[in-house]
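Protocol step 4 of 5: obtain the predicted structure for the target chain.
Materials: sequence only (see below). No template structures provided, no constraints applied. The aim of this step is simply to have a reference model before the mutagenesis design in step 5. Sequence pasted as it appears in the construct record:
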Amino acid sequence: MSIGTSRSVAAVLAAFGLLAAGCGTASAPQGDPNAPLEVWTRSLDDTAKVYEKIFADFTARTGVKIDYKPVYNDFDKRMQERAASRDLPDLVITDVSALGVYQSQGMVTEVDRASFAGGADLVDRAWNNAKGSDGKYYGVPVSTQAQATFIRKDWREKLGKPVPTTWAELVDLAKAFTAGDPDGNGQSDTYGMLVPGSTDRGYLAWWASSYIWQAGGDILAEDNGKYRVAVDSPGTVAAVEWLRGMFCDSKVVQPGALTTITNDAHTFFEQGKAGIYLTGPYMMGRFDKAPGKDKYEVIASPKGPSGSTVLGEGENMYLMAGSARPADQKKLAEFMVSPDAQKAGMQGVPRPVVRLPVNSKVDVSAVYNDPRWNTVAEVYAEDARPFPNVPNFQPFRQQTAETLNALFARCGSDIRAELGKLAANLNKELKSQGMAK
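Step 4 output (structure tokens):
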């Protein structure tokens, strides 16, 4: 069963029988206390190799063995299966967006920030990624990042276009990339905007959220710790109208955009089929190989009507409930945020597992020696924001993605009316999670 539905948190918990029984607690440890720590990360092969080196270093220093399991496909489903069987891994590294679900289902133990070794060296913004809706901490931040705009520099320069700084200039560049034959092959086979528009895991809402914020809109707006639905606000409507124009009017997005998941989207930029991509900085290592480091540039997102806000995310390490090894859980988490482990994670090839360090003692410029990462760090510090801190944001992201997907697929549909329907559904979800103002 996928968590990416509009079901309430209570329904999800009931489905797995966790409301009554829980999935194990720190006071009721399960498993062999002498067995290796079982650690999961949401990883493909390239990033798994980076984690393997870090965990090997931890074992060499402490003698604590690690049973490492990189998982990518069906990660959330497999984690829920383990929760239902009350046999969770000892530790998990995955997106900050998992925190609300894990907390609500009793899958994670609380982290005492005050007694966490090295915790004072972690930046507050990173710690906030591990804070639950009740103000307590249920994870340890290990990496942060902000989205940036990747542009085919060689195409832009060939067509005599400036680096875009506004939405208008961004669309103008996208049109030029689509119609101006920037690769010079004499064929109409290039596109401006690369969009991971699938509804899978809410990808389209993940991509569109930055543009919604840049127009002054929102999905949920916070007000003194509570939230109100803002997906039908004037700013959101304006953003959706602008975004749909790229699908329906200027037609500058890649073919099949509305069924493209992120892993498939990357290949369009990599293979020279699309020239503008709002994505995470972790893609730089891959794109440095193809299309090539000299062929593209990384810039802060061009300004919309209300600014340049972009999605700022990251990964947490979660100390899972039911472990027989709470002391070793904490020991590994403390090691993961140490300067040595942070630097090792940043030096992963082709992709780092620590994008921006959470440890204030690690210098981004010194480790990367790459001005593009300085740009990302500046964007994170000045313009990045996370998704709302509600118990489970996934239903909001999923339903928003589904509505946007339908609006972009049906060019004549009524944006205001459809966003109004979405707002009504999201308001029900917000009330069910007890977070409505």
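Step 4 remarks: The mean pLDDT is 92. Residues 45-62 form the longest helix (18 residues).
Proceed to step 5.
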